[in-house]
What does this fold into?
Amino acid sequence: MSAAAPALVRLPVWRARFVMAGLVAAFLVLAARSLYLQAMQTQFLQEKGEARYSRVLEVPGTRGRILDRNGEALAISTPVQSVWAIPGDVQASAAQLKKLGALLGLEARELRRKLEDRSRDFVYLKRQIAPETADKVAQLGLDGIYQHREYRRYYPGGEVTAHVVGFTGVDEAGQEGVELAFESRLGGTPGSRRVIKDRRGRVVEDVESIRAAQDGRDLQLAIDGKIQSLAYAALKGAVAAHKAKAGALVAIDVRTGEVLALANVPSFNPNNRARLSGAQLRNRAVTDVFEPGSTLKPFTVALALESGRVSPSTLVHIGNGGLRIASYTIQDPHPETELSVAQVIQKSSNVGAARIALALRREDLWRLFDRAGFGAAPQIGFPGEASGRLRAAESWRPIEQATMAYGHGISVSLMQLARAYTVFARDGELVPATLLKSDAPAAGTRVVSAQTARQVRAMLELAVQPGGTAPRARIMGWRVAGKTGTAHKQENGGYAEDKYIASFVGLAPASRPRLVVAVMIDEPANGQYFGGVVAAPVFAEVARGALRALGVPYDAPLEPVPLPGAGEEVREST
Amino acid sequence: MAKLNLLLLLVLVVCALGLVTSQHKARKLFSELERAQARAHELDVEYGKLQLEASTWALHARIERVATGTLGMRTPDARHVRVVTVAGGK
It folds into this structure.
């Protein structure tokens, strides 16, 4: 062009300026835009960018174990896998789906139903499967099927420790027993961390820990696996032999107040809770109350001794077994004219106990029951602890004061009863019961004087001798002491004629008690229903094993203990 | 001036290479850590399984069954047990 036309063409100046201005304007727009993005929207954009590669991962905190006093596991969490799917992403042939169904134990129809709803983003195919099965599922390599780790609780003790330990739900939150009561201590808190993932989803860099996962702490119970399993077996045997509805047992270490065994029948398998009934789940020893019957007589007598009105040898007029108060008559099945205070306990005389109680002030009796822990929850930390019923003394009529003396018109739980007997075992002190292991001897609160406690203990020892109500409670090598109870069950506001609760509370060895064992059998229906026949043998079996396990020295001559012959056993009516 | 610039360029290159290597090392170490953690998890699973297995074998009911049934053992009665106390003990 320039060669053809050498003459200079002068372009108007405004054109150059126009282009210049246009360029500057364009740069200004760019600068403004970048300023806007960089300064005003950085945070949003950075987040968007990070979202492409950074992920926040949950780090699960494991739940603490529950151990028995010897360190044996009663509840363990082990990792399992849960398999889930994004139904819209699943692409699998019929053969693959069949394989998957077989691995997961799902029927083809159920699996199809779960994968049908394509609108959902998340559906569990199967929760908590064994890691090996999960590996096989992963090897199928199906799209849209994922897994994540969960923890599952296993209970090696099974039905033996089911009621004490309780169980957790599918999300590892405690629902019953110790699992619920000590949830805050056992439960772990999950943490989270931020990571950078590459295109293939592998974690390439740990950016930061947002919250550290906290594992739950292990919990060591006072329960002794050996004694517990012995107690459960003995109780189960007795419930079966006497065709009873249920049974419960509590064993307490007198020195520390530790609950060494706590068994209930019927029980359940906490590892497989498919068909459970309420009756199986109930921790009767702690949550159920019953009228204790004669097992309360020693407290009445203790108060009488404490007041100085009577001594163990004071004679009480029985009057051939009938005591009329208002329109009621209290009766003894084996009428005698006179019994000493010790014999009232030994032979479990209702009339005797009532006469002793009527000579006492009702406020004093109430105070003793109250201080022995009746009418208030035992506070061992269990969910749903029953407090029982102890009415205010002002509302007692004379007949009630009389029946209260032998354990009617008052209701207690077996745990309360066992704990109350530590008063006689520890020379007058009530020991707080605990479910957790403790090494130091527990400080008790004084309820009666040491002398009174020893006197009552001597009477309780008479009760297990021939001529007492429970010769079957004796064991070779150790002196035992205890009291039977045979109470009519309350039903529809009255007492059922043919339904009983047989109980026995005993302590051993009598010379220096180490153990209190309380046994309760609900509705024995095989002909026998006396506490001395139904419940006392369970006590003997458990006490024998427990004393051996604890290494308690003998305090009795090593001679076989003869079983009582016919007619030697004294029967009781409450 | 040019010399200084060259020197600075050299320093910059060295620093850049250093950054690359350390980043690479960090990634490698991290993947090792991941592997170790996966292994720890595996061992954890195994430990749990073994614990369960041990407690299943050690069930008191089972021990008793084996002792009395297979091995023909029985609990000695009190006459055949002697309690010894440590000298100076209670």
Summary: Chain A is about 35% helix and 20% strand.
